[in-house]
Design a protein that fits this description.
heterodimer, A: mainly alpha, elongated, B: mainly alpha, Sodium/glucose cotransporter, 20 helices, about 75% helix, globular
């Protein structure tokens, strides 16, 4: 199986860096943003920002898939 | 009418509508095994979305997220953290799983292992782990349902009676209409849950504190330590957060039912698109958390955090509204339970029973056995829910850590040619044993890390190490000719 492209993988790493590995940097109450403690604000913001990253990855993979396959394999049925 | 009767009538009405949608969905379709288990592989973006969302918003998220916010505080952030990330993982896994599934007509996760690694024993082992992990999950839904009815009836109806009725309905519509019925019952459930979450998540902080901001400033003054990790716990700190988020994000689509949901899609693109937009659906989760945090300030003395959402709703709103929330909660228990039973029953009949005990069984007989197993497993879950008092959260976490052990076999199976059957067998066995030992001896988290994550690392290491020393039986999917159809 042909693995996903490097670009798409790097885009997917961004939400992991932001929402998982960097926890010590953002797990705090202050500064409060929009009435939310900073940690809650940060994770809620990434619920919205993750689709942005993944949409970019989607465009990348989609272009690659349509370059590689014939149209009838690509969902036109 | 007493408030209990009002609330219960509304819950029953909602459950009846949801079940009818489930029964109705079968109309005009021939129910062969493929239609029953994977909906004939004809689901579009919306229905796949709903089917997956149906499995994501379970009683655990409905009552559990608010319950964790109430009883643990900061560590509840892990739920907000892993939800978007599990879809990120799915973006790189499910479209490939779908490709293979379509080409070789796969219907279950165990089918995938059998095809990739050429061993019916490995497939049966995978099916067995799947069924064992699913039972406590279905049991958890039942317990949640019991809690809802108990609170909504003001204690008038026993949770046991409520569980029996609900399970008759669930196994009924799974039996009749299979996965399509579940998806349609899910539509009603999700609309209701979305409404319920938005409404109470905003209204409850507003009624008591003038808004979400007011609630947080009150909490930051009264209990600042509750808002960061480790919150009210001793050992759920940042190391636990990172390892749990990784384990759960990798594990989520390893649940056999979530994995098999990929097969219901019409094409791989639908799965990629869903992976992009599904995280937006998680926006209801913070609202559940806000309800739990509000309850902590308003009703600080509850015996069980899982009751916080229902109790604060009961104390704040009229009985009919408690009925609406309870109805949403009841469907939130029934729909996932239905999917879990359907998956476990199919795994049992198709991947455990037929290959090992009765190789000559026809597809019709397998379908009949699977339907019977729905009832048997439903009764099993019902029995466990009534009889056992083991903490459900710990049972669920055990299941999660258990299914996460499929991850190496699936990822390496898709993308590596060097991985061998013995390697995957050994890694999986080691992962499951380490998980069970650590968790059943109350060593989760272990050294500040999630036990499932430690087992997953050992699993990866053993799979790769043994693969390096054993010979390859089947090298990837490409070498197999497509089934003539």
């Amino acid at each position: 199986m042909k693995p996903p492209s490097l670009g798409a993988i790097l885009l997917g790493l961004i939400p992991f860096l932001a929402g998982c590995f960097s926890v010590s940097l953002w797990d705090r109450i202050h500064p409060m943003v929009l009435g939310l403690p900073f940690n809650f604000f940060w994770l809620i913001a990434w619920i919205v920002l993750t689709p942005v990253c993944m949409f970019a990855a989607y465009r990348l993979e989609d272009r690659r898939a349509s370059a590689n396959t014939t149209p009838d394999q690509d969902g036109a049925r | 009418m007493s408030p209990g009767v009002v609330a219960l009538s509304i819950i029953s009405a909602i459950v009846a509508v949801g079940s009818l949608a489930g029964f109705y969905a079968r109309s005009h379709r021939k129910m062969d095994l493929e239609q029953w288990t994977v909906g004939g592989r004809g689901f579009g973006t919306i229905l796949v979305w709903i089917l997956m969302a149906g499995e994501i918003y379970t009683t655990f998220t409905f009552l559990g997220a608010s319950g964790w916010a109430y009883s643990r505080g900061g560590p509840v952030l892990y739920i907000l953290g892993y939800q978007p990330l599990m879809y990120v993982v799915s973006f790189y896994v499910l479209p490939y799983v779908w490709e293979v599934g379509k080409k070789y007509k796969l219907q279950s996760q165990a089918d995938f292992f059998e095809l990739r690694y050429g061993s019916k024993y490995l497939a049966a082992f995978v099916a067995l782990i799947g069924v064992v992990c699913l039972l406590p999950y279905a049991q958890l839904q039942l317990k949640g349902l019991g809690l809802i009815v108990q609170v909504a009836s003001f204690g008038a109806i026993s949770p046991t009676a409520a569980m029996i009725v609900a399970f008759a309905l669930v196994s009924g519509f799974v039996f009749v209409s299979g996965v399509r019925g579940v998806a349609w019952a899910s539509v009603i459930k999700d609309l209701l849950l979305l409404f319920a979450a938005l409404f109470i998540g905003i209204a409850i902080p507003r009624i008591y504190f003038g808004g979400i901001g007011g609630m947080f400033s009150a909490l930051a003054q009264a209990k600042p330590q509750h808002l960061v990790m480790p919150g009210a716990t001793k050992n759920l700190g940042h190391g636990w957060y990172i390892t749990s988020v990784l384990m759960t994000a990798c594990g989520f689509f390893m649940w056999p039912q979530n994995f098999a949901a990929a097969f219901t899609a019409r094409n791989a693109r639908i799965l990629r698109r869903n992976a992009v937009f599904m995280p937006l659906y998680s926006i209801t989760m913070p609202l559940m958390v806000f309800v739990g945090l509000s309850a902590l300030l308003v009703l600080p003395k509850l015996s069980d955090g899982d009751l916080s959402l229902l109790t604060i709703v009961r104390n704040t709103f009229p009985a009919w509204f408690l009925g609406v929330i309870g109805g949403a909660g009841a469907l939130t228990a029934m729909v996932p339970a239905a999917i879990q039973l359907l998956t476990a029953a199919t795994l049992f009949a198709k991947n455990l029973c037929r290959p090992i005990l009765a190789p000559g069984m026809s597809d019709q007989k397998v379908a009949r056995l699977a339907k019977i197993m729905v009832i048997v497993l439903a009764l099993g879950a019902l029995y466990l829910a009534i009889q056992t008092s083991i903490s459900l959260v710990s049972l669920l976490l055990l299941g999660y850590a258990g299914v996460a052990q499929f991850f190496p076999g699936i990822i390496l199976g898709l993308f590596s040619k060097r991985v061998t059957t013995s390697g995957v067998f050994a890694g999986l066995a080691a992962g499951v044993i380490i998980t069970s030992v650590l968790m059943l001896t109350n060593r989760d988290p272990w050294n500040g890390m999630s036990a499932g994550f430690i087992a997953l690392c050992a699993n990866f290491a053993i799979t790769i190490a043994i693969s390096a020393f054993t010979s390859i039986r089947v090298a990837g999917f490409e070498e197999r000719p497509a089934e003539a159809t």
